[in-house]
Each structure stands twice: as C-alpha cells, then as structure tokens.
UniProtKB/TrEMBL annotation:
It comes from hydrothermal vent metagenome. The chain crosses the membrane at residues 12-32, 48-69. This is Diguanylate cyclase/phosphodiesterase (GGDEF & EAL domains) with PAS/PAC sensor(S). SMART domains: EAL (SM00052), GGDEF (SM00267), PAS (SM00091). Residues 874-1127 form the EAL domain. Residues 335-379, 584-620 form the PAS domain. SUPFAM superfamilies: EAL domain-like, Nucleotide cyclase, PYP-like sensor domain (PAS domain). The keyword Endoplasmic reticulum does not apply. Keywords: Membrane, Transmembrane, Transmembrane helix. Residues 732-865 form the GGDEF domain. The keyword Cell division does not apply. InterPro entries: Biofilm_reg_signaling (IPR052155), EAL_dom (IPR001633), EAL_sf (IPR035919), GGDEF_dom (IPR000160), Nucleotide_cyclase (IPR029787), PAS (IPR000014), PAS-like_dom_sf (IPR035965), PAS_4 (IPR013656). PANTHER family: BIOFILM ARCHITECTURE MAINTENANCE PROTEIN MBAA (PTHR44757:SF2), DIGUANYLATE CYCLASE DGCP (PTHR44757).
Length: 1139
C-alpha cells in the first residue's frame, strides 16, 4: 500500500510536517481536552478517558517534538558538510578517473549518484537521492549493505566487489568499492562509492592466464625431466611431472626438499662445482647421479641455462636419464670381455672364419695347441686347409648347412701342422660378429672318447652275453612301473615266455603277491638283513613254483632299477613240508619216540614218551638212554643192536623199562639208524610201545589215569619228592595246587557219567595247555586235580599261575547239547614256607582248599593269611596295571643331562610316572617290580617307548637341540622283540638310531643270558647308544664293561659319596675314568644334588652330570622352557633332596 503512494522528493520536509502536526494536536488537547471529553463521554467515565487520551496524545506530541528537533539539526549538519563532501567527490574523480560515483551520509542516505553508478547498481528507475538502502532494496540485500557500511564507517575498511553492467553497459565488467569519506581532520563523514570499468583489465588477465596455463601444461607434459632451480638455496622453484616421477616423489613432497638431498653424496661436490660454472658462463652441460626414493641410482646428463624471473637468478635445467644406456654399455663391454675370456679359456678349440673367403680370422690358444700352428700362420690359412679329404665335400656341405640352418654338428678328420690326422667333433654356428656375420667352429678332439666308447660297447656286449648265457634266472625290474625291464634266456625257459613277452610285462602276471604285499615282504627282509625273500611265482602254463629272490639296486641311464636273481626252491619247500609233517608225526605219535645222537645222549622225546615212561623231556634230555632200563648196567645200543642195524638197517626187540617207583615192565622196541653223509655221523630213532599182552594195562594204570592220561596220585607224590630234592639242592621254591570242582557229583547225577567224563577230559586239557612242560599236572581222583610248580621266584608267582588256572577252568564248558559252568576251588602250599615234606605240603594245600570251598564263587587260598594278603595284593596290582595301561594313566617326565664344559644339553632321560586314581603319583620303584613279575612290563615298555619317541620327534620339529633321548630298559624286556620295536619306532618317527640311548642297570647287565647278550649286540650293531646305569653298585662292575659293546656308564651315587670321604675310593674314580677313555666310553655322574659334589666332579674332570642341581624332572611342556638359545646354567644354591 505504501509503495503506491508518491512520496515527496524532499523527505526532510515531510518529517517536519508530521512533527508539527503532532505538536499542534498536543497543544489543542492541553487546552480543550476536558470540553471534548465532556461532550463525548458520560460523566461517570470522563476522568478515565481523559487521562487515557492525555497520555497517548502527549506521547505523540513528544515524539513529534523530537523528530522536529532532529530534522532541524540534520539540516544544519548537512548544510555545513555538504560543501566539503562535494569538494572531496570531485577531488577523487580527478585523481581516480572513475566512471561512476555515489555519496552516502553517515546515516546511509544517498546525497549524490552519477548516471553511470545508477546503471551499474541497477537503480535507473528509482528515486535515489534522499533515500536509504532499506527503502531501495529488499530486506536481505539491505541488511548486507548496512553491514558493509558499518565496517566502512566504524573501522575504515574498503569494500570491493565485481559486478557486470546493465543496459548499454552490460557487456562491461565493473569493479565497485566503497571507501570512507574523510574531512581534513581525518574524521569519517560519509561513504564514497566508486565504480570502475575493468573489462579491458579482465581481458588482459584472461589472456595472461591462458598463456600461463598453456605454458604450464606444456611444461608438465614434457617427456623429459625439467627443473627450475634456485641456485642460492638449491630448492626447486618449479618442475614438471617427469622430474618428480624420475625420483618417485609426490610433487608436494619434492617441492619442499633441496635438490642436494637427491644427489649421490659422492657426486655432490662435483655437482655444486658444475652449477657454479654454469652461473658464470650463463649455460652449460653437467652430469651427476641422483638417488630415488627407493635408494636406486639414476645416471643423469643435463643442460642448464641461467634465467631471470622476478629479478631472481634461476637455472632452467633439462635432464636426461641415461641409466639404461650406461647399463647397456657396461653390459655390452662386460659381454665382450666375458666372450673374449670364454673364447680364450674354453676347453675346446675355437676358430672364427669369414663366410666370404672361409679364411681363419681368429683362434684361441687351445686351437693353436691342437693344430700346432702359431697364431700368425693360422690366420693366413683357410678352414679348407685343415680338411684331410681331397674333394672337401663334407666341409662344403656343412658350409651350406650353416647358411641354411645357422648350425652344423658333425664328426670329421682334420690334420695338424705335422700332418697327423685327428678325429674331431665340430660344432659350427653362424654368428653376428659386430657388423658382419662370421662362422664359429668349436673343435673337440674325440679320439680318446671314440676309444672309450668302443671299449664300453665291447664291455657291454661282454656283460650282455654273461647276462644272457647265465644259467641262473635273472630279471631287471623297474620298481616305479612294477614291470620287467629285461630278462635272460634262463628266465624265458623257466617262465615259458619269450624275451619280448617278458619285457614290459607287469610283475603281477608272474608274482602271485600283490604289489603292496610284495613291498612289505621286501621291507621286512631288509629290516632283518636276510638278503633274500621267498614268494610264489606263476609260470605261463599256470604252474605255481616257489622261488627265492635275491635282488639289489642298479642304475642304468639315470634310472633306478632292481637286479633280481631268482632260484627255484620248490623242491626244498616240499622237503621242508615233509620235515614239518615228520615233526608233527613225531609229536603226535601214540608210540614213545626217543632220538639218540652219536654220543649216546638223548636229544629229544615226544609227548607219548613222557606218558608211557613217566619221564619228562627236561629230566632225560642230554642223559644216557639207559636211564629208562630196569638195569642201568645194560646198554640200549649194544653190539647186537649195531650188528642188526648194519645188516638190516633196523633192530627190533624187547626191553624192560624201570618205572620211577622202581617197578619194571616190558616195552616193545624198534631202533633205526639215520646216517648223515655230510657230517659222517649217525643218529638213532628208538620207538617204544607197551606190551599189552603182558598185563600192560594194569601196569599203566599204576601211574596214569586212563580217562585223562594224567599222572595219578602215586606218580604225583613221587614227582613231588623228586622235585623237593631238586628244590633243596637249588635253594628254590615250589608250589602245590590242589583243585576241586563244587557239586561235580550233581553233574553226573543230572547229565550222566559220560558227560562227566567229557568234562574231566576237557579239564585235563585246559590244565595241560596252561602249564609249563616242567610242571606236573595230576588227576588225583574223581574231580580232584593237582599241579606241581617248580622253580618259583616268589610267592606272588604261584598266585599269578593260580589266577590264570582259575580263570581258565571257570570258563563255560560247551558240549554238543549243554553249556556248563563250574565253580573252582584251589588250595595252595609253598615249599619251604609251609613245610619241607611232601605229605605236610599236601596236607597244608588240602587245608587251604577246604577254606576256599567255603566261598560261593571260584576262589583260591594259600595256607596263611599273610600269603593270601600278599597274593591278593599282587593280583590287585596286576588288575590295576592293566587298567592303567588301558586308561593311559602312565606319563613321562624328562630329566636333563648336561655337559659342564660348554653347559649344553647332552641327553633327556625319559622317566615313567603313574598317576594312580586313588594313591596319587607313584614313582617307578612303587609299581615296576609288580609289572615285571606279572609280565606287564613289556606292554608298559612299548607304551612308554612310543610316547617318548613321539614327544622327541615333536621337540626336534620345534628345532630344540636335544642330541639324545634316554630310555630305561629292564632285564625282562631284553628279547628279540626289543630290537624290532626300536627300529620300527625310529622308522615311524624318522629318528636316527644313534640319538636313542638305552640304559640297563649294572645288576641286569651282569646277569643277562647268552640269548639276551645276542640281542644287545644286535641293538648295538643297529647304532643304538647303550649305557650301564648304577655302575659300581656290585662287584662285577669292571667285568660288565667287557660283556657287550657299550657307549657310556652312569656312576652309582653311593660310589661318588664314598670317593669324597675315602682316600681309596677317591683313587678309584680317576682310574675308572682312565679306563673309560681308553675304551672310548662316556662317563656320567648321576644324582648330583649339591654344590660340593659338583665341585668334586669338576676337580676330577667328570663333565657330564645329571641331578637336581641341574634340574628336577620336567614335564613335556617345561622342557621347552628349560632349553633356550642361552647356555644352560647350573644352580649354585644349596643342595636339594633327590626323590
């Protein structure tokens, strides 16, 4: 609404008019206000309205008065300063040559504005003079202008902006600025606006920027590095992309670095001198080496020129990377030198020939020596001159090959200066030699090689003839393809195939065994060092023949083959089978058979002999056969027997046999002679059978029960008395076991006597099968049996045997129609613990049997509570050992052994521990004796060996330096299976035999049998390390060193203690050490627990020790902590107790 009203031109006059009207209204109300209220308002409201309107009207009058006074004062001020403002405007116009000018007062009111300024500020159609920006612009624009004006008036700032013109000036660009307008005293009295046409200036700037961009683009895209360098600071003034890329830096990073940082330190001084020379001469070339970000060296050649920019001396530098060129030059020079060196020092003669004239243009020293010419003479010759052929056809043909294929290889004869002909191999090549092609002839004298090849062919033919003509069957086998590579004529005749058929034939066509089974057989043969193996082979007609194969590796043309020699052993196999049949016939014959050697000694008897005569093999072996005769003065092999054998080859007759109770009976006898042509010795087979026609049944029933064929009570008592005599002489124990079956009579009553007899026969077989040959099993009467056990080591052993028999006899008896379970009771007596007389021993056993029969289950009893407690304890221990082995309750700790000379580990001793579920941790001495007596030691030993080897392999995989693993072996483990077990485990875990140490106590080592000594020799032959533990604990110490080859001894701790307190013992240890040195045996001290013992051992130069001073036994995990790259330190604390 206000915008449509036409305001007066002079705003100040309007202000005076409004102010005067407000003042006049106030004066009228002051004099006539009561009358006006009285006329318009009722009487009771007059006061209220009067005071209200009085306040409003007087307020308006006051505002009008203020406006009037202010307008009057403004007119006075502007009129005073207007002349000064106009003067300043024209003064600035004269000095600035501006095209548009405007003037504003401090209150923001425009006082002057030129037409150009109106057009630039887009105010052509508006009344400007006397108005402020609030009235000319929108609210936001006005606020912005007021803010700028405030900065100009209060702070004296200059405000600049660019704007395009409008109307006829819209093609021009203007620079506008507002500056403070000051009087002569410097006070700001207004704002002066200036608008200047900058179109020409902008065009010039754009042109300059285009030129700058074009130059910069060209500068950065140059393919070679360009650098503008400030020689004073050595900082880059400018550079292109190729320059920063050359040194592999970002542009921003490169711009901050001095160029000297990129110069090879060895070249920096030369570069600085080059720069100084260029500054003096204004331009010049330079060379240097730059270092890249990756510390690579770049060889640089460059040209620099001095330039001036902004009155500053700079160097415009062009750089060229000649690293590849220099490298190529160096490689070319090196190649040339290398070629020349190879040329001169080659093992073969080399001649270089010109392709055009075939003249020799170069030759090495070997060629000069081979041909016998000096260099000058040789260079005047042609390659044709060396040819021995008159027509030179071969040489000319090879020259054509060189031109066609660039290569020729041939053998030829050439002649030297003396005219001697030489067979040579010529390897010719066409080469590019500089700018021209040449022929290079490499000449090798092969005269010697030809002779060798001829000799080799002759040798091959000779051995081929030997291979083919040999009567033995021979095959060459390719193991990778599992086929036959070659065969001789004997193989063809044996297998029925031709050579062509045998060659490349799969081995499975003749060998019945599969490839896997054959490989296993071969591996087992090699492990046992047999040198041969046997297997069945199939011939072409399907016949199976047993062969013995002896093979070995051979190499032909780099291929690994197997050379096999095959023997047909079918006949010997049949002989072995016949011998086996004969052996079985000997064992199972119902007649008594006795073998006698040429020294009139019994070699062997069969089971029927023991049944008929009552003598066991252990009683009669190596004795004279006359022991069975009723009259010992008679000879079994007398002159009449020899005469009959010489005449008819056999003697038959009758002898009287003396029973053990002194009675005699007749036996039918036949004696045959077996003569060995090779040894010229004779053996005799004696066959005996009872003479049943002469009351033999009655006499046989005297000592044997007919039903079970077991000794009866009388024979049992007789054997018991003899056994007591032997036990007394040998100071050994024996045991008597009486066996009874509960309610056996009920079985006879319910099932019949036939079934009862079958059970008794089954019981007798079970007893016989589960006792030794030296033990006596007797059928006393009805269902009562007895067992005599000799050579007992301890009471516990008879308990183990009894438990074994109890378990066997309690198993179900299966007949054709019934399954029967028997309750077994046993009574046991021990000599000499219970008695030294046979009758009393049987009585004690009977008393124990009576006690056992009171139990409702199968049970055995000994004569005393202490014996029963001991036996039960051992049986319980055996059961617990079985459970421990099954549940993996055994574990290993490791005791280190160190060398004091260098404080390094030499061995880890594996010690077994038992984590008992009830008794806690048990040491070896608490359970190994039980294990050894019960036979569990072998199973425990196998378990410990496997665990220790597996852990040792793990340590080696962790790169721990453990030279040896030590294992404790007891005497009962020394058997043929031990050696095989060690070899198998080493193979499985890929361990060297020499890294495994086996420790045997001196007591066990001194008492080993001959067979065990053989096992130890086998173990030592397999390179296992053998050590004697507790050396010096018995009187046989020194002799044990000679029992078997050993590698080390561990001194008994008691001997070391005695040596520290006894002068005699102190002399013994050095003597033992000297002996060990002479026998190349290591000497180790064990249980070293105190610093005193440690110092003593060091004083006598015993450097290998083991004990708690070094370390307690370590768990598998603690071993890794104990072994470190640092040397092992010996504790120097007070001694500790050894557990």
């Amino acid at each position: 609404m206000l915008k449509k009203i036409k305001l007066p031109q002079n705003r100040e006059l309007l202000n005076l008019f409004i102010s005067g009207l407000a003042i006049t209204t106030g004066l009228v109300w002051m004099f006539l206000g009561n009358q006006i209220i009285a006329l318009l308002v009722t009487e009771h409201n007059q006061d209220i309205f009067y005071y209200f309107f009085s306040g409003v009207i007087f307020s308006l009058a006051f505002i009008g008065f203020y406006g009037f006074i202010r307008t009057v004062l403004y007119f006075a001020e502007f009129m005073i300063e207007e002349e000064n403002l106009n003067a300043l405007i024209y003064k600035n116009l004269l000095t600035e040559e501006d095209e548009g000018v405007f003037l504003k007062t401090r209150r923001g009111v425009y006082k002057t504005m030129t037409p150009v300024a109106r057009q630039i500020l887009n105010l052509e159609d508006k009344q400007v003079i006397g108005f402020s920006d609030k009235e000319l612009y929108k609210f936001s624009t006005a606020n912005k202008i007021l803010h700028e004006d405030k900065r100009v008036l209060e702070y004296g700032d200059t405000i600049e902006w660019e704007t395009p013109g409008s109307g006829i000036r819209k093609k021009n660009d203007y620079l506008c600025k507002k500056v403070p307008c000051r009087d002569n005293s410097g006070s700001i009295i207004g704002i002066l606006g200036i608008c200047k046409n900058i179109s020409t200036l902008k065009a010039t700037q754009r042109l300059n920027q285009q030129l700058e961009d074009r130059y910069s683009n060209l500068f950065n895209k140059l393919p070679y590095p360009v650098l503008i360098l400030d020689p004073a600071s050595f900082h880059p003034y400018s550079f292109n992309n190729a320059m920063s890329a050359l040194l592999d830096y970002e542009k921003a990073e490169f711009s901050r670095m001095r160029i000297s940082h990129h110069i090879d330190p060895c070249e920096l001084t030369n570069f600085q001198q080059s720069i100084a020379n260029i500054l003096d001469t204004h331009s010049g070339e330079f060379e240097t080496r730059l270092v890249t970000r990756q510390r690579d060296i770049v060889n640089i050649t460059g040209y620099a020129q001095k330039i001036i920019i902004d009155d500053k001396q700079l160097l415009h530098m062009f750089l060229y990377d000649n690293t590849d060129t220099r490298r190529s030059t160096d490689i070319l020079i090196g190649s040339e030198l290398k070629y020349r060196s190879l040329f001169e020092h080659a093992n073969d003669a080399i001649i270089v020939v010109s392709p055009n004239s075939l003249n020799i243009i170069d030759a090495n020293e070997i060629a000069i020596l081979l041909l016998g010419y000096n260099r000058d003479d040789l260079l005047l010759m042609s390659i044709i001159d060396l040819d021995t052929c008159a027509d030179h056809t071969l040489t000319q043909a090879k020259i054509i090959d060189l031109e066609t294929y660039n290569h020729a290889l041939y053998e030829h004869q050439i002649q030297n200066k003396k005219g001697e002909k030489q067979v040579v191999e010529i390897n010719a090549h066409k080469l590019n030699y500089g700018k021209e092609d040449v022929y290079q002839f490499v000449i090798r004298n092969i005269g010697t090689r030809k002779k060798t090849e001829a000799a080799l062919r002759a040798s091959e033919n000779r051995y081929r003839q030997m291979f083919q003509s040999n009567m033995a069957i021979k095959l060459v086998i390719d193991p990778d393809r599992f086929c036959i590579e070659d065969a001789n004529m004997a193989a063809c005749e044996f297998y029925g195939y031709s050579i062509d058929e045998l060659k490349n034939m799969n081995l499975s066509q003749i060998n019945i065994l599969s490839r896997d089974k054959l490989n296993i057989l071969i591996e087992q043969t090699r492990e046992q060092n047999l040198g041969f193996y046997s297997c069945p082979h199939r011939l072409s007609d399907g016949e199976i023949r047993f062969v013995e194969v002896r093979d070995g590796p051979m190499e032909i043309e780099g291929r690994q083959l197997i050379y096999s020699i095959i023997y047909d052993v079918t006949a010997s196999k049949e002989a072995e089978n016949q011998a086996l049949v004969a052996s079985k016939m000997f064992d199972y014959s119902t007649d008594a058979v006795m073998l006698i050697n040429d020294k009139n000694q019994v070699v062997s008897v069969n089971h029927a002999f023991s049944s008929i005569t009552g003598y066991q093999q252990s009683e009669i072996q190596n004795s004279a056969p006359e022991i069975i005769l009723s009259s010992p003065d008679n000879l079994l092999l007398n002159e009449s027997v020899y005469a009959s054998i010489d005449t008819s080859g056999q003697w038959a007759g009758e002898i009287w046999h003396r029973l053990k109770n002194g009675q005699s009976r007749p036996l039918s006898v036949s004696i045959n002679c077996i003569h060995n042509e090779n040894t010229k010795t004779s053996s005799y087979v004696v066959m005996l059978s009872p003479k049943y026609g002469h009351k033999s049944e009655h006499e046989n029933s005297i000592h044997f029960v007919e039903l079970t064929q077991l000794p009866n009570r009388s024979l049992f008592i007789d054997r018991l008395k003899n056994a007591l005599d032997r036990a007394q002489r040998n100071k050994a124990r024996l045991g008597v076991i009486l066996i009874d079956f509960k309610k056996f009579s009920l079985i006879n009553a319910n099932y019949g006597y036939d079934l009862g007899d079958q059970l008794l026969q089954a019981i007798s077989k079970r007893l016989s099968y589960n006792t030794r040959d030296s033990d006596t099993v007797s059928h006393l009467n009805s269902d009562d049996f007895a067992v005599l056990i000799e050579d007992l080591d301890s009471i516990q052993q008879v308990g183990i045997v009894a438990q074994k028999l109890l378990s066997t006899l309690s198993e179900t008896y299966q007949t054709a129609e019934h399954s029967i379970d028997l309750t077994v009771s046993m009574g046991i007596s021990i000599y000499p613990d219970d008695s030294k007389h046979s009758d009393e021993l049987i009585t004690c056993a009977q008393a124990a049997l009576t006690t056992a029969q009171k139990s409702s289950v199968s049970h055995f009893e000994l004569t005393s509570a202490e014996m029963n407690r001991t036996a039960n304890m051992w049986l319980q221990s055996e059961a617990e050992l079985h459970i421990a082995l099954r549940d993996n309750q055994f574990f290993i700790v490791y005791l280190p052994q160190v060398n004091l000379q260098n404080n390094t580990l030499t061995s880890l001793e594996a010690l077994v521990r038992w984590q008992h579920p009830e008794h806690g941790l048990l040491l070896p001495g608490q359970f190994l004796p039980d294990a050894e007596h019960s036979g569990f030691i072998e199973a425990i030993g196998r378990d410990i060996i496997e665990k220790a080897f597996k852990q040792y392999r793990h340590y080696l995989d962790l790169k721990l330096n453990i030279p040896r693993l030590s294992l404790n072996i007891c005497k009962s483990q020394i058997n043929s299976g031990l050696s095989r077990l060690l070899v198998e485990q080493c193979s499985q875990y890929k361990l060297q035999h020499c890294s495994i140490e086996l420790e045997f106590t001196e007591k066990d080592f001194s008492n080993i049998t001959d067979s065990q000594r053989t096992v130890l020799r086998s173990i030592h032959a397999n390179n296992f390390f053998i050590c004697i533990d507790n050396f010096g604990s018995s009187t046989s110490s020194l002799s044990s060193l000679l029992q078997c080859s050993i590698n080390a001894i561990k001194i008994d701790p008691e001997l070391i203690q005695q040596a520290q307190h006894s002068l005699e013992a102190n002399k013994l240890l050095p003597a033992i050490k000297s002996l060990c040195i002479s026998l190349n045996i290591e000497m180790i001290a064990k249980n070293v627990d105190s610093v005193k013992t440690y110092d003593y051992l060091r004083s006598i130069n015993i450097n290998q020790i083991q004990g708690y001073l070094i370390s307690r036994p370590l768990s598998a995990g603690d071993v890794k902590k104990f072994i470190s790259p640092e040397k092992i330190k010996v504790q120097t604390s007070s001694s500790t107790l050894h557990n």
